[in-house]
Every structure is written in C-alpha cells, then in structure tokens.
Predict the 3D structure of the following.
Amino acid sequence: MTFDVSARTVMERCDILGSYSEEPDRLTRPFASQAMRQVNEAVASWMHAAGMTVQQDKVGNLIGRYEASQAGAKTLLLGSHLDTVRDAGKYDGPLGVMIAIACVERLYAQRERLPFAIEALGFADEEGLRYHSAYIGSRAVAGTFDPEALHLTDSDGITMAEAIHTFGGDPDPRALQTARWHRDELLAYCEVHIEQGPVLEASNLPVAVVSAIAGQNRITIRFRGEAGHAGTVPMSLRHDALCAGAEFVLAVETGARGFPGLVATVGQVSVQPGASNVIPGQVTLSLDVRHQDDTVREQANRQLEERAREIGAARHVSADWQMLQGHCAVPCAPHLAELLSQAIEEIGYPTLSLSSGAGHDAATMSELTDIAMLFVRCRGGISHNPAESVTVEDVEVAIQVLERFLLLLSKE
Amino acid sequence: MTFDVSARTVMERCDILGSYSEEPDRLTRPFASQAMRQVNEAVASWMHAAGMTVQQDKVGNLIGRYEASQAGAKTLLLGSHLDTVRDAGKYDGPLGVMIAIACVERLYAQRERLPFAIEALGFADEEGLRYHSAYIGSRAVAGTFDPEALHLTDSDGITMAEAIHTFGGDPDPRALQTARWHRDELLAYCEVHIEQGPVLEASNLPVAVVSAIAGQNRITIRFRGEAGHAGTVPMSLRHDALCAGAEFVLAVETGARGFPGLVATVGQVSVQPGASNVIPGQVTLSLDVRHQDDTVREQANRQLEERAREIGAARHVSADWQMLQGHCAVPCAPHLAELLSQAIEEIGYPTLSLSSGAGHDAATMSELTDIAMLFVRCRGGISHNPAESVTVEDVEVAIQVLERFLLLLSKE
C-alpha cells in the first residue's frame, strides 16, 4: 500500500504530543496543565499550517476553523480530546484531532473549499483525570457544563475555576453553560478514535463505523452469609458469601453471552472478614453492564438481579442489589453512519458496524448535533496503557475514509 | 437437670477472667500482659482452694499440682490456655482450665487422691496475638519452643525475651527448649475446649470426643488472564481471571463435599487491577484445606490443584498453585478417646466423635505424651467473638465426663 505523507505526519504528531506530560517517565496530561498548554501550542501551529484560523475557548478547548466555499454555510465539527489518563498511550484522543487536521490540510493543499465550514476541535478534557469530572471540554461546547464543577478541587487543592483562569480561559458559569453553536448552524459532529477494543483486530479490518455509544449501568451487589471458622464449620452447615458471589460472577458471564452485543463485568470484589482461615461472611461485587440498545440492557439487568436473588436464596445468603448509576445509549445518526460505510466501501474495505462500549466526546456532542464516529484498529485492543499502538497504514485508511466522508457530505 | 455448684462456679470464674483485659471495652488478653498477671493470680487462688500447689513456670504458664495417692506415681496433665484473641469470648481456653480445676476441687472436697498426680496447666499463650507465634506456652512445656522467637518484637518493639522477663519468667533459651517432663513420667494430656463450630449444636449434644486435630494446608492460587476495558472487549474475546477464580471457588466447595469430613475455604480474594470498569487481569485466592486424615487431605489437594489447572486451561488463563504451609493431623490416643466415650455414655449421652478443625495446645502436647480432647457445645458455633456462649448445663456435663474419665483412668 502506498500512502500520502499525511499518515506519517499524523503518526509523528502523535509522537510529539506524547512527549508533553506532567510526569517525567510516562504520559500523564491532565486538564489545564502545563503539558496541555504545550499541546495546544503545537496543535495550534499545525492548524495554522492547515489553513485554519485558531482560537482557544473559555474552558481551554482548541478550535481551528476552515471556512466554507460560501458565506452562511453550516459547520461540520470534527475532533476528539487532547488530555490523557495517567500512564497513557499516545493515540486515545489525539489521533482523532490529528486525522481531522490532516484532512483539512489535504483540502488546503489543493486550495479546495467545501460547501460547509469545518471546525477541528481539540477538547481540553475528556478523561476527567484532574477533577474526576469527565467531558469538561465537550460539555462546555455543547452547553451542558455543570457550573458546580467549577468548585471541584484537584489533589493540590486548586479549584477548577482557578485552573481554567490560570490556563488563560474564563470560568464564567453562564458562558460555560451556553452552547457554542445553535443546532441549525451545525451539520454534524464526527469523531475518529481508536477502538480501545479487540474486535477490529479479530476481524482483520482497519476501521469500523460506530452504530451507537452504549448505555451503561454501574451496580453494587452485596451477598451477606455467615462468617465462621474455616476449620470447624462443616461444608454442609456453611453460608459462604463468597460461594454465592462466585456463582453470581459466572451467572454474569453466562447471562451476558445470552444477549448479543452485551458486555457485563465484575471488576471489583471485596471479601469480609477477608482472612484465609475465616469463611467469608460478606462479599461485595461491582457490576458494569453495557449495550447499545437500552431495552436489552434493562432486560439483562433484570435477569441478573433475579439470578442474584435466586443464588442467594438457595444458599440462605441475602443478596442486595444497588443501582449506582446508569445512562442511556447514544445512537449515531443513521444517515451519517451510512455515509461513513459508503466511504469505507469506496476505498475498498468491507464495512463493520460496532457499538462503542467506551464513552466518548461524541456522546456529549449528541446534545448539540447529529454525531458520527469512526473507529481505528489498535493493537491487541489495548488502550489506557503506554502499549497503545496503531499502524500508519490504518491511519492512512482512516484519513481516506474521513476525506471521502467529507466529499459525500458535500454532495448531499 | 440438677447439678453440683461447681458448674456455676466455673461459669462465674470464666466471667471474672473475662473482665481482665488490656482493652477497656472488649476482651483482649495477650501473652505476658498485665491482664495475664491478674488472671494468673486469680487462677492460682482457685488452684490453691482446690488443694493444689501452684507455680508459674519460666515462660509464664501457671501450673497447679494435686498429688497422687502414692509417691512415684505418674502425672496426668489437664489444661488449656488463658490468653485470648483480640475482642474475644470468655470461654475459648479458660473454660478448659476452669473445668480441670473444678474436677480437682471435687476430689479435694471428698479428700480423694487418685493413683496418679494431676497437674492443671494454664498456658500463657496459645493464640499468638502479641508475637504472631502461637503455642508459646505449650511449646515451652513440650520442649519444642523455638529460641529464635525470643527475638520477636511486639507492636511496641518489646522483645519476647523482655516480655517474659518482665512477667517474672526466665527467657533462658536452653530451659525453654527442655521439656518439663520425661514422657514416662506422664500418663496423658487431656484438654476440654469449646467446639468453636456448630456440629454439637446441630446434633443437639452437650459434648463430643475429639478423634484428631486436623492436618492443614494453606495455599495461594493465582489466575492470570488479560485485563481489558469493560466496555470494549466482547464477552467472547475475554480472558477474565475473576471468572476463572469464581469457577475455582465453586470447585473448592464441590470438591470438599466429595470428601467426608474435609473442609476447604477460600477466605481471601484479591483482584487486579480491581476497577469496576476493567476486566480482571489477575486474581489471587487463599485456600485453607483441613482433614483429620492426611492422605485424604493430600488427595483433595491434588484434585483441587488439577481443577485449578483445568479451569485455567479452558479459559487461556494461567493458574499458579503455591503451597504456603502444611502440617499433619495429630491423632488423639484411641484408648483415651475410648475412655472419654465410655464416660459420656455412663452419664447418659450418646457419643459423638469429631475431628478438630482448629489447632489446640493438645497438638503441641502430643510431642510429649498421649493426648485426649473433649469438646463442649457453644452457641451457634461462634468463637473468637464476644458472642461466644456456653450453657451451665453443658459445663456440668463436661465436668461429670472429665470426673468419670479420671475414675476410669484410675481403674486401668
């Protein structure tokens, strides 16, 4: 495969951005940090080179604008986030911004204007590392920013308001609660992002169209049995809370497999009293359930709750089911997904449609406009890890798909 | 049921001993503490009242001697421990010493001497609360004391040697390694102890004869799978270490039920990374396996290790089996168990024979002489807990059984 210089440029730029970190030996780039300042400067220079006018908004998002062929045209938003988790990889977020800029750069190199303006957005915070409040950047754009968050403090006691001010923004609650655009000024928001999962690799494909961002529940299940001496209570007289918990863990696995596309995970286990010579009296499990169809997710929840009660009842162990949080699925706009699929097919790949189990800025942006997402294969499905890796070949495919998508959108 | 005043006395004495604690609101009586000094003083006074000569040995054990009817007779040892765990109950340990004294007191009241001397031992440490080294008292008596332990420090930095010295003992390593008696000077060691389990209660019986103190293994099992994003890795592509661990927990339960008398317990679970939105990559479990027959225990271990490997292999999750420690079962002397059974039947109860899943001073004393143990029912099988409870009726049965046992032994 031969490819334009831009894919290599995108890879190099991701390398450069990966060098801006708040920690010496690993990539950690929180909201409104010195490393984010360096990143915004670098990205601004690349936006300028791609023929865009650049500004940083009140919350610290970087926005590059490439005008339309005619005045009064709508705007297409492209973008992703520029912050990272702790000990991050280089591509989660920045890759989407770099591919957006690369596409504009190719248009600019050919002195081409489209019937809509393009804005490339580099969001100031998606991961929520510094304030444990995710999507600060896209919420400020979509007008869904919660001004209460301005009082949150980081580990050094600095409030979000102070951090925004120091970063050169303006922590004005009214401004941060106001959407940057009216819905009818916008065409759509389209985000390119690494898959952060193994499906593309397993399917041997470079890219996929995202059908929806999955809805999610976080649940706590507590089994209460009877603690006892590991040496003196016969097996037949036990009410071991961990055995109930173990049955439930396997019921979650089996249950999830019964709903195509559902993922359900027990990620945390706490055993009380937690001594090697004491029968567990209480076990607390976390449960994370996700699906792109809210009715399927709710049905799975009901079934798993019922299983927890059955398992407990059979063992004379109480089962307590506590729903901590939930949010609905966010569908991608079908006509945009269709255009992305068409773009993928036109450059010679089969279309794979995937739901996103992870949250993305696109979910927030769906409050403002139609959304579309393109996933790029990442090695081993690994993300939030320095081993995060994409190939220059796949990046080239993603650029070509996004280019073709812009073209198809222009023809509508 | 009517009964001698002694059972009430035993209950009252357990209450009194339960008031001597190093902590104001709960019973915590570590080795060589001020509370142990008070306990030894109180118990010494009761030993004196029962016609015994009393001494405290080099490690702090309290020893009361009731002479035989003739000179040169052997000695029968009775006893248990006087220390406690943290936040303890009143009966684990002291009950056995109080019942021994009560039996001697009844002999003394009738001016009766037996053809053997009786020594009632109140061991200075069985629980190992202060130095995390259990059986200090009985080891010093049996001559199996490890002099290295003298250098252990408590949470205040006080060495065991200093503690013994302050308590009025003599931390002389040679003396502590020398058995107090020659084997041929002794008849046996017999210990009365609460069951610390629910079998007597479930069987509706006051006492049981102990057949053996179970052998035990402590094992660590580690399953290593693949961590991943809880939202992006489909169920079919997961290698969830916790699912493997859960299968194993249930395999332990099922496996243990396949070996009558075996108890096997997973009491600790550690999940890595342990976040609600991350598929567990590694799970570490503790496993405690006990049985009175070493060959059964070893067979169970082999079977469970095999199951761990099978479970791991089926999931492409590695299984690491690490044997941390093990000790063999200690059988009670059959002829003594037979005498105890006969005593129980003669006072009108059916005999129940139980193995002890918990360790006891008797196991240490088996290095020195034949051992026998009598279990007393405790409410709900609860021990190591302030809710530990026995009835005065059951205590009276235990005193009568021990009295009858002394009588039967006298006739041999």
